[in-house]
UniProtKB/TrEMBL annotation:
Residues 1-72 form the BRCT domain. This is Microcephalin. SUPFAM superfamilies: BRCT domain. PROSITE patterns: BRCT. InterPro entries: BRCT_dom, BRCT_dom_sf, Microcephalin-like. GO terms for biological process: mitotic cell cycle. It comes from Collichthys lucidus. It holds the Pfam family BRCT_2.
Amino acid sequence: MFVSQHSQPPTQSLVELIQLCGGTVCKTVRQAGICIGRYSGRRPEGSRILSEQWVLDSITHLKQLSYDNYDLE
């Protein structure tokens, strides 16, 4: 996944949380199927933009939650 530079909590904090929980964070949105936080640039077809809350809720529940309630598009 890719974390937007406009995310709240700050990008670096989310990246650290994701990595501590075993997730992989990409440096560019082109490498990722999921973008966390608002992103207005070009991105691969079929990729999703999810709210930061999805990451936080998934960590809280100790599992990857459904994307349904977290889509930003």
